[in-house]
């Protein structure tokens, strides 16, 4: 039996999924990312990075009950705008600087012409202080002793590739999120590199998702326990890879990912940059994935639990929400309610909400109101992607897909069918499909979808 490894380098969790020839998830390792944050900086020490990756791999192998030499290929899904700096001898100059890091300010943002930026990069959202460029500028201004030694800027997935294969290469979709990539030409945007003081030789070679990055080396075996010689293929941005795992490039559906951040992804056959939407190269030349995202995701539920119901788990609160009628008795949650003081992120026509808990509402009302708010945000995002044309079916992914109640709420508010996949770890599955295609297990992506992509329920 052959097995295919998909590594998910997520923001909150790293995961490693082992899939068999039918596309069944046989082993899953899942570990929280041990980031170190003081509210401003947000870093991941390199030794903690490798310990977390290896623990995930060990857990997946143990669950699958297979030998490591049964793994035939590997690939990844990844977060964007998390990076590390190396010197000319590939020595580490920094820990991994993660995208939530806020050390940079608006003063470190590059000056860009909005239309030129969007048309070149495909990013319909202007760069913010969490982008790689802003933090690179911060190092140049405030840590010149570090910056003068920098020879390589690698994203977290670039660093994984380099460490496991010895090759400095990257995938188009993750590169596109940097704001330094010319999407139409599929190359680094040299003019913008000059504006930011980044030399092109500091960056890895960009290639399309599915390109072979090389084979795992002896160093990879020491770091991860994977044997030398496993072919390693370029994956992509986590939301993109979840869409690949959901069959979106083939079936034409939308992919909803409700995790820390809410996202909606589709595929297009032409490149048309649009305000508010991020566009990047897809699986094949001439195809593009399009993504729109919103902060109004699952973070709001954890915020409520932590601050107002710490004695309960999220599953406990979801059970309470099941007993609440749609509309929550008039209670509504504002977009990103967690950004408001106290419970002022909730509204009711008969209450000023100057006090913490109106007596006629319980935890279930608040939780359902937050879930309905996320569904309304998703509806707006789907309409923006489809330009008011009829909405196709949606495949639900991310942690939110584990709640049938939440998927039901979304289906009702978005007013289109929602599919719940058999395997909820779609980012891992998308990566594993990429690796399987790389070694010609399937003749085409459509063939892989026919065998690997299955749904357990339609709502």
Total domains: 2
- What is the CA-atom radius of gyration, in angstroms? 22 Å
The CATH superfamily label of the largest domain reads ATPase, nucleotide binding domain
Question: Roughly what percent helix?
Answer: 25-40%
The largest sheet is:
7 strands, mixed
- Low-pLDDT runs: none
CATH class of the largest domain: Alpha Beta
CATH fold field value of the largest domain: Nucleotidyltransferase, domain 5
Distance between the termini: 34 Å
CATH architecture of the largest domain: 2-Layer Sandwich
Please count the beta strands (DSSP E, at least 2 residues each).
25
Let me know the average pLDDT.
94
What are the salient characteristics of this protein?
459 residues; alpha+beta; Nucleotidyltransferase, domain 5; 2 domains; 7-stranded mixed β-sheet; 5-stranded mixed β-sheet; 25 strands; globular
3D architecture notes:
With 459 residues, the protein is an alpha+beta fold. The chain has 2 domains: 3-234, ATPase, nucleotide binding domain (Nucleotidyltransferase, domain 5, 2-Layer Sandwich); 243-421, Nucleotidyltransferase, domain 5, CATH 3.30.420.40. The protein is built from 16 helices and 25 strands. The strands form 8 sheets. It has a 7-stranded mixed sheet with strand order 19-20-18-17-23-24-25, sandwiched between helices. Strands 3-2-1-6-16 form a 5-stranded mixed sheet. The protein has a 3-stranded antiparallel sheet with strand order 4-5-8. A hairpin with a 3-residue loop joins β1 and β2 (13-19). The chain starts with a strand and ends with a strand. The mean pLDDT is 94.
């Amino acid at each position: 039996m052959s097995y295919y490894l998909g590594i998910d380098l997520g923001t909150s969790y790293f995961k490693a999924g082992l899939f068999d020839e039918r596309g069944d998830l046989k082993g899953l390792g899942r570990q929280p990312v041990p980031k170190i944050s003081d509210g401003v900086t947000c870093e991941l020490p390199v030794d903690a990075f490798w310990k977390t990756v290896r623990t995930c791999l060990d857990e997946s192998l143990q669950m699958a009950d297979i030998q490591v030499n049964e793994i035939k290929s590997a690939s990844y899904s990844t977060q964007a705008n998390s990076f590390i700096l190396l010197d000319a001898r590939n020595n580490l100059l920094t820990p991994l600087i993660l995208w939530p890091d806020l050390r940079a300010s608006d003063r470190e943002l590059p000056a860009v012409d909005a239309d030129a930026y969007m048309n070149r990069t495909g990013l319909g959202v202007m760069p913010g202080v969490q982008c790689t460029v802003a933090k690179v500028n911060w190092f140049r201004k405030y840590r010149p002793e570090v910056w003068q030694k920098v020879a390589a800027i690698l994203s977290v997935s670039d660093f994984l590739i380099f460490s496991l294969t010895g090759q400095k290469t990257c995938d188009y979709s993750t590169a596109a999120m940097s704001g330094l990539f010319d999407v139409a030409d599929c190359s680094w945007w040299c003019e913008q590199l000059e504006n930011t003081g980044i030399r092109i030789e500091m960056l890895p070679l960009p290639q399309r998702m599915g390109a072979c990055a090389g084979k795992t080396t002896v160093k990879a075996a020491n770091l991860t326990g994977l044997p030398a010689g496993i072919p390693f293929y370029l994956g992509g941005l986590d939301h993109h890879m979840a869409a690949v795992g959901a069959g979106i490039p083939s079936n034409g559906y939308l992919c909803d990912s409700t995790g820390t951040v809410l996202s909606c992804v589709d595929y297009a056959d032409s490149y048309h940059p649009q305000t508010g939407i991020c566009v990047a190269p897809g699986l094949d030349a001439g195809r593009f994935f399009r993504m729109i995202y919103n902060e109004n995701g699952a973070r709001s539920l954890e915020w409520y639990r932590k601050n107002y119901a710490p004695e309960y788990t999220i599953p406990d609160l979801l059970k309470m929400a099941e007993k609440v009628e749609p509309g929550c008795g008039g209670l509504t949650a504002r977009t990103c309610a967690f950004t408001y003081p106290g419970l002022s992120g909730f509204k009711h026509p008969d209450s000023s909400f100057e006090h913490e808990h109106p007596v006629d509402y319980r935890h279930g009302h608040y939780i359902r109101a937050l879930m309905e708010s996320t569904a309304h945000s998703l509806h707006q995002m789907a309409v923006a992607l489809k330009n008011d044309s009829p909405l196709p079916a949606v495949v639900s992914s991310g942690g939110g897909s584990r709640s049938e109640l939440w998927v039901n709420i979304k289906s009702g508010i978005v007013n289109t069918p929602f599919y719940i996949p058999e395997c909820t770890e779609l980012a891992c599955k998308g990566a594993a499909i990429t690796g399987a295609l790389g070694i010609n297990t399937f003749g085409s992506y459509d063939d892989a979808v026919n065998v690997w992509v299955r749904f357990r329920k339609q709502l």
